[in-house]
Amino acid sequence: METIVALATAPIKSALAIIRVSGDDAFELVSKCFSKDIRKIKERTLLFGNIVDDNKVIDEVVLAIYKGPKSFTGEDLVEIMCHGSMLIANEIIELLLSKGARYATNGEYSSRAFLNGRIDLIQAEAINDVINASSKEAKELSILSLKGKTSELILPIKKRIADVLSLIEVNIDYPEYEDIEVANKGHVISLVDELVPQINSLVESGEKGLIIKEGIKVALVGKPNVGKSSLLNALLGESKAIVTDIAGTTRDVVEGEINLNGVILHLLDTAGIRESSDQVESIGVNKSKEAIAKADLVIVLLDASKELDKQDKDILELVKDIPHVIVYNKADKLVSKDNDKLYISALNNDINPLKEEIYKALGIKEEAFRTPSLNNVRQLGLLKVTKEALLKAKEDAENDLSIDLVSVSLMDAYNAILEILGEYKQTDISKEIFSRFCVGK
Question: Which of 16, 144, 351, 373 could be a cystine partner for 149, CB 3.0 to 4.6 Å?
Answer without folding.
Answer: 144
